[in-house]
Write a structure and sequence with these properties.
Elements (H helix, E strand, L loop, with lengths): L11 E3 L7 H12 L4 E4 L2 E3 L5 E4 L2 H4 L5 E8 L2 E12 L2
Parallel strand pairs: 1-6
Antiparallel strand pairs: 2-3, 3-4, 4-5, 5-6
Length: about 90
């Protein structure tokens, strides 16, 4: 992610300048997760190593600002994300 210029000071980053169509965001989600990812809940997809998650649940899409979530987890805690990128859908 450093190659994309996404540097975070806090846990969540709103990337409003990175808004893209839903179709494009799904392509980016697949690249973010890598091969072999699994759907662990409706609209929630996790990488094979368990450290990256792409989320596009109904509540995310129907939110006041529709968005997808790209989340990063610590190997020591796979239940709570340490970074959460909110990317709006246009």
């Amino acid at each position: 992610m450093a190659a994309t210029g996404w540097k975070l000071g806090g846990k969540t980053l709103q990337l409003t300048s990175k808004a893209r169509t839903a179709e494009r965001r799904l392509e980016i989600g697949e690249r973010f997760l890598g091969a072999g990812y699994k759907e662990i809940a409706p609209g929630v997809f996790r990488s094979t190593d368990g450290l990256r998650q792409f989320r596009m649940t109904d509540s995310d899409i129907l939110d006041k600002i529709p968005h997808f979530n790209f989340e990063v987890f610590s190997p020591n805690n796979l239940k709570t994300s340490i970074k959460n990128y909110h990317m709006p859908i246009r």
